Each structure stands twice: as C-alpha cells, then as structure tokens.
Amino acid sequence: MTASNHELFERAQTHIPGGVNSPVRAFGSVGGDPVFVKRAEGARFFDENDQSYIDYVGSWGPMILGHAHPDVIEAVRDAAKSGLSFGAPTVSETRMADLLCELVPSMDMVRLTSSGTEATMSAIRLARGFTGRDRIVKFQGNYHGHSDSLLVEAGSGALTHGVPSSPGVPKAFADLTTTVEYNNLEQVREVFAEVGDEVAAIIVEPVVGNMNCIPPEPGFLEGLRHVCDEYGAVLIFDEVMTGFRVSLGGAQEHYGIKPDLTTMGKVIGGGMPVGAFGGRREIMEMISPMGPVYHAGTLSGNPMAMAAGVKTLELISVPGFFDVLTRRTQALCDGLSAAAKAHGIPMITQNVGGMFGLFFTDKDRVANFNDATACDKEAFKAFFHGMLDEGVYFAPSSFEAGFVSMAHGEAEIDATISAAERVLARMAG
Ligand code: PMP
C-alpha cells in the first residue's frame, strides 16, 4: 500500500497552500481528505491506492468523452513527437478556429488562450475597448474565472470558501462591476435604467454551473439580449462550462440566443489547458495585432492542446452525440430523484445536456443565488461522503455542477443510482 490520501494531503500542504492548486479540490466545504488521483480511464478514476471511483467531475467539465480516450491520447502523442511549443503559428490553430466558428452560431472570429479565466478577462477588456465604457454587469453566484473585474460576488470556489469577493481585488475594480440576481430581468432593467449608458457588457453563464446547476428561466436570456441591444452594451455568454456540453453549439444554440461575444474553455481542450473568446467580426477585429485592444499568450494555441481539442470536437460532432449524452444525464437525474423521494429525503435535480445539479431542498426548483445557498449543506455533505465511500465521486461542494461523459454507460449510471439508494436509506434512517 502506498501512502493514504490523508498522508498525501498532509505532505502536499508543506509547499502548496492548502495542498491544492485550485481551492475546491481541497474538500473545504465537505471536510475530509481529497482523493489523490493516479490514473483515469473512461468513467472512472483511481487513487494512489488503486481504489476506483465513478467520476462525475470529469476535470470540472472537459472530459466529455470520458478519461484517457484512446483517440485523444494518440492525437496528443503524435503532436508531442513534433515538438511541444513553437511560439509561431501552426495549422492546428487554424483548424481549431475553423471548427469553433463552424459549430458556435455567433462566432465569426476567435482568439485562443490557455484558460477560461484568460478568455473571460480578455473578453471583458475587448468589450470595454469596443464600447469605450468601463462598467460591467454580472450575476450573483456566476463564476467567470479569477480576474479582478470578475471576482465580485462570484460562485464556485469563491462561494464554497465563503469569500464571494476576494481581498486583493481593488475597490475601484469592484466599483465598476454591478451584480444582479440571476434570472431577475426586472433587476437588470432597473440597473440599466440608472447606469445603462456606462455599461460595456453583461457577462452571464447562460446555464449556471458554479452555484450548482441552474438553467435560465424562459425569457431571461432573450431579455438580456434586448437590454444589450437597447443600450448598446455587449452581451457576453460565458460558455466555458456550457460550450460543447449542453449541446454541440453550446447554450446559445440550445436556447436560440446569439450573444456578441462568447468565451469557451474546458471541452475545447479535451483536458489540456485551453480557452477561447470569439464572436462578432467587428468586435473581434479590435484585438491586437489587427486592432488596439491588447491580448497575447506565450502558450496560446499550444500544439498539444490543439491536438486534444480538435480530436475531441471531431468526436463529439457525430450526429446524435448530444441526444445520447442528454438521455444518460436525464436517466441519472431521474434515478437519483426517485431514490430520494422513495426515502422521503427532500432532494431535487436540475439538468441541461450533459450537466446536472443535486439540491437538498424542499423547493421544486432552484433559480438563483439565494435559493442555492438556502439548500441543506449538511445533507449534501452526508450524501457526498456516503457516495464517496461507495466509490462514486461527485463534486466536493454543493455549489458545483456535475458532469456526465459518453463513457458513463448504463452500468455506471445504474451502479450510481443503487449506491445512492443505499446512502439515502442510511440518511433517512
Ligand atoms: N467561466 C466559467 C463559466 C467557468 O466555469 C470557469 C471555471 N470553472 C471559468 C470561467 C474559468 O476557467 P478556468 O478555470 O479554466 O480559468
């Protein structure tokens, strides 16, 4: 036996703050020791002691084909043989950009980055440069990465760790970020009536995945589109999570609304570090070196990341992929809700495409930050640890969405539901 997860975590904390390189990995809100992953395959990963887990985190979204898909691994191997990075253009970047613009309805041009944070940070700068305005509007509990302007009343780790706005974000930046309740169009209209001509952009997660999984109410995204048109603000859909996850063309295709700019990440890198921002040609033409708004990156469009991403996009473009993924996600959610109901535990599920959320609440839907934070955290904690002991790995926080991959077949989903039945029975009893 190698060291336990507890020992590995202790050791990691010597030189890594909190023992992790991204906060939610630390199990801060659920307690206990994080699982140190040695390897992964398909729907499962294995810890350093070869304990197997059915994984519903999938690296927080990218692994839509399952872990270590042979074709993706081969594409990366092939790319690596030709060199890891050149800092000069490659045709693989053109291929990636062509694919993104072909598949994402609103995308005329696109620029690649190395993370979702860079993509949203640069999209905000671009919107400010394009409009000549400084204010941005975002939604409570939406997370757009950790750049200064966007780390205000944010979701995900910021919320899990109880610091939705971070020390170190200058007040002057926070003052330029107005936050509004998600799914509350009335409040958006009120803000615009007051300061609409100062607003460069609205940035929104079209389906929120960073305060669990919260879909937009009918009319909400349309309303944002109208408000932006009326006041000349840029509408940014942050599809880092929803892109190539809720449907092939992202949430914008699923709901039929065209944003001006879109940010991407996760799936488009197939597990390698990638992000992207793109959209209307006249806006994108303002990016350096074409235009005056600066954006750069030593590793942007990295050849291995392009190889993994392009292969992933090709494999998920096969007809029917998202129908199957959606059906599997629905089957999982239906099974979990039925198990909770059978044991009298108030728990509901919400899902779109291949993303889902579990909420311990007696409400019949969760629509915003207040609803999400009012859910029973202790019940989630008990469920999370019960499932972990059963070999099922859900996101270690009640504020994160879960992800189903194409490697989650009937066997994995049935095993998950059976495990949930046992755990929920113990919780009820
Ligand atoms: N936007 C959204 C919607 C996200 O979910 C995330 C990450 N979970 C980001 C931006 C930031 O991406 P990254 O972690 O790659 O910087």
From TrEMBL:
Localization annotation: Cytoplasm
Gene3D superfamilies on file: Aspartate Aminotransferase, domain 1 (3.90.1150.10), Type I PLP-dependent aspartate aminotransferase-like (Major domain) (3.40.640.10)
Pathway assigned in UniProt: Porphyrin-containing compound metabolism; protoporphyrin-IX biosynthesis; 5-aminolevulinate from L-glutamyl-tRNA(Glu): step 2/2
Keyword Cytoplasm assigned: yes
Modification N6-(pyridoxal phosphate)lysine occurs at: K266
Cofactor(s) needed: pyridoxal 5'-phosphate
Database matches in NCBIfam families: hemL (TIGR00713), PRK00062.1 (NF000818)
Protein's UniProt name: Glutamate-1-semialdehyde 2,1-aminomutase
Main location: cytoplasm
Family: Belongs to the class-III pyridoxal-phosphate-dependent aminotransferase family. HemL subfamily.
Superkingdom classification of source: Bacteria
GO molecular function annotation: glutamate-1-semialdehyde 2,1-aminomutase activity
Keyword list, A-Z: Cytoplasm, Isomerase, Porphyrin biosynthesis, Pyridoxal phosphate
Keyword Isomerase: yes
Subunit structure, as described in the record: Homodimer.
InterPro entries xref list: 4pyrrol_synth_GluAld_NH2Trfase (IPR004639), Aminotrans_3 (IPR005814), Aminotrans_3_PPA_site (IPR049704), PyrdxlP-dep_Trfase (IPR015424), PyrdxlP-dep_Trfase_major (IPR015421), PyrdxlP-dep_Trfase_small (IPR015422)
Catalytic activity entry: (S)-4-amino-5-oxopentanoate = 5-aminolevulinate
A Pfam family the protein falls into: Aminotran_3
Enzyme Commission numbers on file: 5.4.3.8
Taxonomy of the source species: Bacteria, Pseudomonadati, Pseudomonadota, Gammaproteobacteria, Chromatiales
